[in-house]
Amino acid sequence: MSDSTGLGRRVSVETHYEQAKQELEALARRLADEGAARLPAEDRLTREIGFSRPTVRSALLALQMEGKVLRVHGVGTFINRHALDIRANLAEDAPFLSVIERFGHEPTLDIVRLAEEPLPPKVCARAGVPDDTVGIVIDRLYRASGEPAVLSRDYVPADHLTRSASEVTAERSTFAFMRRWTGRVVRYSVASIHAVNAPQHVADMLGVASESAVLVLDHDHVDEGDEVVGATEAFVRDDLIRFSIVRTSTDL
Q1: Where in the chain is the domain with CATH 1.10.10.10?
Q2: 205, exposed or middle or buried, with CB in 10 Å at 0-12, 13-18, 19+?
């Protein structure tokens, strides 16, 4: 999971693909409410929403990966209307600010910490760097109508920086930080998901009791050279954000 700059201010920077995906999802929701079972054919969708056919096809593929539609070759694109109600889909690459908003909250983001310090051994191992590697650590706190909801901690080896550590700023997201201060573009991220008892610093930031169970999305960020260039731990309060995933049948 790829939001905002500054403290508590939102920034919307959407590509054509993201815009097309949003419009197709809105169309699917509207048609489902009207009782329709399918989306129109690609050529008609291209005319109706005003994006190129490759963009529409990419957006449809993303919606299928998220389980919101099912594309059957030679038959059509079916709407999975119950899946449209999922507000936090593990298969969807949505920023936390957007996810929080879908749950009916006002989303804000605070940059609460930026420091240069030794990276945890597990991060060093995954990034293929020595155990004593120093890096940049950034804590971002996402709030839901003022209530702490997600604490995200980024780890980036200092050797990847194109400027000195004292010059860098946190930026609006992990990906924006990587682009600006390392010159590397994150091509994809791999996340493992598990529950942990909240460490004290996490409990303090999220406003929960020490050792309370929280969900962790533990990301490795991979660049265009297929190298792990950073990591993120996102600690999530599941009483505010409940993730779901759609499993589709292979019998069709």
Answers
A1: 16-85
A2: buried
Q: At what angle do helices 42-49 and 16-33 cross, to 10 degrees?
A: 110
CA distance 59 to 77: 12
Cα(79)–Cα(182) distance, integer angstroms: 41
Which residues have a Cβ under 8 Å from the Cβ of 165 and sit 6 or more positions away?
116, 136, 158
Tell me, what's the pLDDT at 5? 30
Q: Model confidence over 107-163: pLDDT tens digits? A: 999 999 999 999 999 999 999 999 999 999 999 999 999 999 999 999 999 999 999
CATH classification (class only), 96-236: alpha beta
Find the Cα–Cα–Cα–Cα dihedral 1, 106, 60, 37, rounded to 10°: 130
CATH code given to domain 16-85: 1.10.10.10
Angstrom distance (rounded) from CA 64 to CA 28: 12
Quick one: tokens of 64? Answer: 């299928």
Residue 214 burial (CB count, 10 A): 22
3-state secondary structure of 135: strand
Q: Where are the CATH 3.40.1410.10 domain residues in the chain?
A: 96-236
Sheet with 134-144, edge to edge strand ranges = 107-118, 134-144, 147-157, 228-236, 213-223, 186-197
Q: What is the pTM of this model?
A: 0.76
Provide the CB-side half-sphere exposure for 52 (13 A, CA): 6
| Residue that the structure tokens 């700023």 belong to | 169
Residues 54-87: tens digit of each pLDDT: 999 999 988 988 888 898 888 999 999 888 877 7
Report helix angle 16-33 to 53-65, nearest 10: 60
